Amino acid sequence: MGENKNGVLNQREMLYGERLGKMIRCETISSSFNQDLSKFYKFHEILEELFPNIHKTCEKHEFNGSLLFKWSGKGNGKPILFMSHQDVVEANGQWVHDPFGGEIVDGALWGRGTVDTKGSLFCFLQAVEELIEKGYVPECDVYLASSCTEEIGGEGAPLTVKWLQEQGVQLRFLMDEGGMIKEEPMKGVKGRFAMVGCLEKGYGDIRFTARGNGGHASVPQKQTPLTRLAAFMMDIEKHNPFTAKMNPTVAEMFRRMAPYTQGTLGTVMKYEKQLEPLLERLLPKINPLGAAMISTTLNFTMAKGADGLNVVPQEAYVTGNMRFIHHQGPKESLALVSKIAKKYEIETEPILIHEPCPVVDYKGKPFRLVEHVMKKMFPGVIVAPYAMTGGTDAKFYTPVCRNSIRFAPLEINEQQYQSIHGVNENININALPKAVDFYKQIVRHMEGWKE
C-alpha cells in the first residue's frame, strides 16, 4: 500500500470503511417473533466474499444463523475467543443518512450496526484474515463467534456454548462487546479512557400480578388491582430496597480516573477508600449510572389491565426488569421485592433469571494483556476497569470461560455512544485500522503465554 505512513493509513481507512460498509448494507434486524434467517445467510455470503482466507483455513460451524470459526493453533494452550453479534436493532426515527446505506461521509461510516456491533466484528475478522494471508499460525486455537440473536436474548450464544462444552473447550479468555475508547467517560472526567468491562450484573424479567373483583368502571372501587400495583411501584421508587456497596471494579475505576477529575468528584474518587461509606449512601442519589454499578436495580417496563376502557380489571400485571449486583444476587433481591409486593397482595413471578457473571480480575493476566496492548497501540489512553450495567452474549459463556472481557478497541465520541440503539449510528473510519491491529497483537501475545 505504499511507503508513506499517512498514505497507508488513509488507504487502510477507506478500504476498511468500504468493506465494513458492505456488512452494514445487509440489513440484519433480529426479531423475537418469526425470526427470518434468510437475511443472516445473505450476510454470511458477504462475510465469505470479504474474508476468503478465514473461510478456506478455519473450521466453520453454524447454529441457526449464528457462526463459530475455529482457527487451529500449533500449541496445546487454552484457546481464546473473539465475539461480536451480527444482528442489529430496528432503525426507527429520522436519520441523517440511510441506516442501511453504508455511506462514508466526512470521514465517518453511517449505518445501523457500525458501533453495535458489526464494527468490532469486522475488525477481528479483518485481523485474522490478514494474519492468515501472511502465513501466520497462532500459538493456540482462536475462536471467532457471532450470534444472530444477541439483541433478542435468543438461542445463538447458548447453542454455540453447548457445542464448545461438547468439545471440552475451556477458554483462556474471551473478548466481547462492552466498553470502548471514549473521551470524558463520566461527566467531569477529562481524558481518553479505554473502559474495559470486567463485571456484568445478573438479569431478571419479573411479572407482578394483582387480582380483585373487577366490574364496571361506572361503580367506584378502592384497592383495585391497578391501584395496588401503582402503590407498589411508588413504594419501590420511593424506598429503594437494595443495598449499595462499593465493589473492587468500581473502586479501581475511580482510583484510575481520580487524577483526571477536577473538583469534589475528583477528591471523592481520590479518597474513595476513606469515603466509601459516604459514597455508598450518596452515589445512588446523585448519579443513576453510578448507582447501577454498585447495587441491584429494578425498573418497571410493561403493564396490562382490562381489555375495555370502561372495565375495572379482575387481574392486572406489570413487568419489571432487574439487574442483580454480585453482593445481592437474584435470590436475596427477589425476596426483598416480593416482601414489599405482598403488602399490596401482589404475586411475584420470575420469568427469566440470569445469575451475575464471574468478575474479571483487573490484576489478572487477561486484563493486564489488554492493558499492555492498549498502552502500546493507543498512547495517552488511560485503561480503566468498569462495571457494565447492560447485558451481553458473554453471560452465556460462563460454563466455558471465567475471564470474559467486555471491550471493543474502537474510539467513539459522545454522539456515537448515544447513537447505540438510537438514530444516526456511525463510526469514524480512522478508528478501524488501530482496532484491527489491536486484535492482531492480542493473538501474537499468545506466544510464550504461561497459564
Automatic annotation (TrEMBL):
<keyword id="KW-0479">Metal-binding</keyword>
<dbReference type="GO" id="GO:0009014">
    <property type="term" value="F:succinyl-diaminopimelate desuccinylase activity"/>
</dbReference>
<dbReference type="GO" id="GO:0006508">
    <property type="term" value="P:proteolysis"/>
</dbReference>
<keyword id="KW-0378">Hydrolase</keyword>
<keyword id="KW-0645">Protease</keyword>
<dbReference type="InterPro" id="IPR011650">
    <property type="entry name" value="Peptidase_M20_dimer"/>
</dbReference>
<comment type="similarity">
    <text>Belongs to the peptidase M20A family.</text>
</comment>
<dbReference type="Pfam" id="PF01546">
    <property type="entry name" value="Peptidase_M20"/>
</dbReference>
<dbReference type="GO" id="GO:0046872">
    <property type="term" value="F:metal ion binding"/>
</dbReference>
<keyword id="KW-0862">Zinc</keyword>
<dbReference type="Pfam" id="PF07687">
    <property type="entry name" value="M20_dimer"/>
</dbReference>
<dbReference type="InterPro" id="IPR002933">
    <property type="entry name" value="Peptidase_M20"/>
</dbReference>
<protein>
    <submittedName>
        <fullName>Succinyl-diaminopimelate desuccinylase</fullName>
        <ecNumber>3.5.1.18</ecNumber>
    </submittedName>
</protein>
<dbReference type="InterPro" id="IPR001261">
    <property type="entry name" value="ArgE/DapE_CS"/>
</dbReference>
<feature type="domain" description="Peptidase M20 dimerisation">
    <location>
        <begin position="200"/>
        <end position="346"/>
    </location>
</feature>
<dbReference type="GO" id="GO:0008233">
    <property type="term" value="F:peptidase activity"/>
</dbReference>
<dbReference type="InterPro" id="IPR036264">
    <property type="entry name" value="Bact_exopeptidase_dim_dom"/>
</dbReference>
<dbReference type="InterPro" id="IPR047177">
    <property type="entry name" value="Pept_M20A"/>
</dbReference>
